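Hi R.,

Here's the chain you asked about this morning:
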Amino acid sequence: MSPQTTSAPRLQAIYDGKAYQNAVPTTVSPPSGYSELLKRWLFEKAEREPKKPLGPFPADAKALAAPVPAAALRATWLGHSTVLLEIDGHRILTDPVWSERVSPTSFMGPKRFFAPPLPLAELPELDAVVLSHDHYDHLDSAAIHFLGRTGVPFFCPLGVGAHLRRWGVAAACITELNWWESAQLSEDFTMVATPARHFSGRGLTRNGTLWASWCLLGPTHKVFFGGDSGPFEEGFRQIGEAHGPFDLVMLEIGASDPEWADIHLGPDNALVAHRLLGGGPLLPLHWGTFNLAFHAWQQPVQRLLAAAGPEVPLLLPAPGQPANIAAGPLNSHWWER
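And the predicted structure, written out as tokens:
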């Protein structure tokens, strides 16, 4: 697999022996300060959570357990950044989060808008779990405990393996990669960790583990999973030149705000990233599941639809609804019901 030539040296994460830094200058702390954020959280009036309960959105566990065709490409969004991906005979799960709250505790923190469409115990047999970073809304210890008992291989950025081993995943099942490093899922299927502009940490520590996006390169199809990232034109351009265009692009659109503009895309910057990656069907992630920002819960998808234009094939399935990529654009309007 020979990457195309890029016009600049490939971007690399910076590690000083204790913490990772982004390849470009990045502000994580809010410029206005945390007291101003608290005021906004308490007094701004956006509908950050649905007024009425959502769902249920039951997935068809039996259909999802059927053998994956050798040339298939299907994605089932289970909420936030959790996607069950069926690609070229393989089943891959991204950033599995099943807990009711994305928080260090079970009684405080952002709570789900709807129950997971598929219980953990009804997941079909997986070929891989791909992790983008260790934040609570992307790395759920309870889900990892469960999945670790199945013997499924985990692919994660550098340092994240320590969490997995602590939660019972066998070391032999863990592959940790730096940006641009690759590993084989099978003889003809390659997993590549690629750059992202974000940060990491659970609790009070920050940036002790790396964050990444991923290119999933099968014999027939190629998928990009963005994890979390802020605006990062050179990074997305390099990824697109090296491994694009993609048959499916999965990018975050929610939890954006001017106070943390460097670390989350939002809908408009997601469209910029999508173009730099080479276009293709776009499945938006990281929205409609948890209250993680000041915007209304429906705002990310509403803005994406307004800004995308007819040239961007959007995939907007309901939670738990499989999207067959070859069938073309899909808009379920589930958030309006």
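The chain is about 20% helix and 20% strand.

Let me know if you need anything else.
M.
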